[in-house]
Amino acid sequence: MPRPVADFVLTPTDKSALQGLLRKGTTPNRLAQRARILLSLAERVPPKAISAQHGTSVASVFRWRARFEELGVDGLVDLPRPGQPRKLSDKKVREILTLTTQRIPAEATHWSLRLMARYAGTTIHQVQQVWQAADLKPHRLQTFKISNDPHFAEKVVDVVGLYMNPPENAVVLSVDEKTQIQALDRTQPQLPLRPGQVERRTHDYKRHGTASLYAAFDILTGNVMGRITQRHRACEFLDFMRQIDKATDPNLDLHVILDNSSTHKTAAVKDWLTKHPRVKLHFTPTSASWLNAVERWFAQLERRALYRGAFGSVGELRDAIRQFIDAHNAYAAKPFRWTKSAEVILAKVERAKQSISH
Questions:
Q1: Which residues contact residue 90 at a Cβ distance below 8 angstroms, ignoring those fewer than 6 apart?
Q2: Cα 307–chain centre separation
Q3: How far apart are CA 353 and CA 313, in angstroms?
Q4: What pTM did the predictor assign?
């Protein structure tokens, strides 16, 4: 016969404290479970039944009973575990932050977890915790360029206005050229993709010449008009403008967004514009290619058609570009959406200038 369990009696104060833990929404589950165990014991529920009800062992029931009898409600909290990692002092945290933001290691251009742990005399995990708390990421680098164009603001307002509120009875085109596109071929045949093996190719290549692409991106439809040339001079640009003029409705105004290349401002171009008053050029600020919508399409062209392509001649390169333009217009073209107003852009640039000056 097992020995009867001694009665477990709670004082009104202890019972109220345990019930208070259960009423709190912030009480951890493990602490609430221990309070329920003790309340069940006070109601003379057998330990075996309590262990089955709460999914714990009978030994755990007796352990928390003994802890409570010795330390009261405070005894229900977990005791510090042996071997707890040494905590960093505030001084050491400041040292890590100072080294990270104001110093450069002698053997590298930026800090790594291992380097900082060695310099600061801490563990890699501790450095990681400090960096995460401060949102520091020394391994990452972003590039930026702030335009010094004296007419930056008015050009931003002009171009963004065309994107967000296109004029009626008009076509708005974003135009630019992608120059010196190389027709690269691999020195050996590529090994195709197959189960268990990625596509592979040689790291070395053969050059077969270059081509330049003029592209006009229609922001209202997303369609692209292209012209592939051998060179990129003012005469090639003017030929492309003539192509655009013939391909668009002559009864509509034509607004063309361009960068500040000198080939867009020659006397021949100005003379042609005088004879074609429906065509109006809008220049983006200098060092602000991100404001030209066609640049996004160029990025797609590079990523999807050129980077992994193999071209045995300039002719093959030209065919691949034309095929990509046709496929884009047939399946992927959609209206361009610009979401940030000119005011938001100008405010962000102003904040960037102030941060640099400080």
A1: none
A2: 21
A3: 46
A4: 0.69
